[in-house]
Specification:
185 residues; alpha+beta; two-stranded antiparallel ribbon; two-stranded antiparallel sheet; 5 helices; elongated
């Protein structure tokens, strides 16, 4: 009489068996186990995706840097924080630039455009904002992806590879360039 165990062609369930590989922990030996149908690893039931409890997109932000910027000894003032927050919440996906003038940003924040310009320059010097091209004669800025990024973590790692690191406390502003005096004849 022929053998009819699970390893012979005579067993009709042979084709349906699943082979699993495992390691014996005590010896480190590799072993194969044939599993009969019904004894396979159960697949975890797919759960429906969980939505966040807020509307719209969200982004990853460095809490450590954010907390440091908001401290009183950071060198960044209230206007700087307002402008940084504006760029944080108005930046597009994957560190897209904010296509607004300082006048438009000032209107949104209730700030003088010169104050917006001063804060943007300080945040740029500190590395929180990066130049992102021009529109007409206006220099546009974007959020540094090392501080905040709207996109998957894998993309952020690639996107920030050549970005500088933001600094805290704020760097000292460069002195304003003096205008040449007008000679009166």
């Amino acid at each position: 009489m022929a053998r009819t165990d699970s390893r012979t062609w005579e067993n009709p369930r042979w084709e349906a068996m699943a082979r699993r590989t495992g390691v014996v922990r005590e010896t480190g030996e590799l072993m194969h186990v044939d599993m009969l149908p019904g004894f396979e690893d159960e697949q975890l039931a797919k759960r429906p995706p969980v939505g966040y409890s807020w509307r719209g997109r969200h982004m990853n932000v460095s809490k450590e840097m954010g907390a440091a910027v908001w401290r009183k000894d950071s060198g960044y003032d209230r206007n700087d924080r307002d402008v940084l927050g504006f760029y944080l919440f108005n930046s597009g996906e994957r560190a897209a630039r904010v296509e607004m003038t300082f006048d438009q940003i000032g209107q949104e924040l209730g700030m003088n455009p010169r104050a917006v310009s001063k804060s943007v320059k300080k945040l740029h010097a500190g590395g929180f904002l990066l130049e992102a091209g021009t529109m007409a004669k206006v220099t546009l800025y974007r959020l540094n992806g090392r501080f905040g990024y709207d996109g998957p973590a894998e993309e952020q790692v690639k996107a920030v590879a050549d970005m500088r690191h933001p600094v805290i406390p704020a760097p000292e502003p460069e002195p304003a360039k003096s205008r040449p005096s007008k000679e009166v004849k």
